[in-house]
DNA sequence: AACGATTTTTTCGAATTTCGTAAAAAACTG
DNA sequence: CAGTTTTTTACGAAATTCGAAAAAATCGTT
């Protein structure tokens, strides 16, 4: 996989703001031809650098309750627990971490009942979870995939 | 804002998988006309139900270090701290929470140095942060905005 | 059930975008 | 610097999107 250059990052930055901006417009904006933008985007997709998706507003979908849950797993079951958790549609993020919790997940629910049911019935049925530390989201300030920056990648 | 119906959710589910699928194809897939898909998507966008974005792979962008940081703020400064943090491009998530930490953020860095600099120099300069509890991501299992489900919204 | 009003869906030609591909240009290599 | 590879451009054909009007469906009222 070739290293991303300035043009690639500019394309990503534009698509970050509007994932459906036409190649022709991006081309015009960057002073390149449509074909160039197209071939670059095709390559970026092929290299798995990004995907076209949508960002729904959970509130508008009726998912009024969001939570971050820190999990402590029994030694040796971290991986299987993480994979099990990843299958749930209400779980949007699962990661293994160093620090207080072995796993940290983020999940969305319609209401508190659904969250309680998830913790008490779903989580308890997964073998290997020792403890769950639930933090309820009170207000969301920022939530995005917008981490494309055009600054220099540090020399390793 | 009208309530989302089954067709809206189906459209969102399709776009979740491929944010660039043409209206014509969605229409064909759902047995509706292109115009219907177009007007529904236009309305959903106008109502702020979702946005077209891209999901970059942080690793492919050279962002090899991700962290979740739980913050304790001084009484009264939670909001200003959150807003300040939201301005950082490396910070992709900021939320106020009940539980152990007042704020929880998620951020991406090129390397450990960048993370250390962020914690020691950026965070320390923000007025109102009492403590920061850093968890380093060791492995990512799931990360998506795919929380559109087509099950029943519970009766409140 | 019938009515008008409103909203949603369909239709269709025009404008725009995307696609396939070949040629040109540029960049890289030894 | 000639040869090779990669990238960009160009352009006609195919597909998609767009604008707007007609048709259909939905809704509230009687």
From TrEMBL, chains A, B:
This is Lrp/AsnC family transcriptional regulator. GO terms for molecular function: sequence-specific DNA binding. Keywords: DNA-binding, Transcription, Transcription regulation. SUPFAM superfamilies: Dimeric alpha+beta barrel (SSF54909), Winged helix' DNA-binding domain (SSF46785). One of its GO terms (cellular component) is cytosol. InterPro entries: ArsR-like_HTH (IPR011991), AsnC-type_HTH_dom (IPR000485), Dimeric_a/b-barrel (IPR011008), Tscrpt_reg_AsnC-like (IPR019888), Tscrpt_reg_AsnC/Lrp_C (IPR019887), Tscrpt_reg_HTH_AsnC-type_CS (IPR019885), WH-like_DNA-bd_sf (IPR036388), WH_DNA-bd_sf (IPR036390). CDD domains: HTH_ARSR. It holds the Pfam family HTH_AsnC-type. GO terms for biological process: response to amino acid. It comes from Brevibacillus thermoruber. Residues 4-64 form the HTH asnC-type domain. PROSITE patterns: HTH_ASNC_1, HTH_ASNC_2.
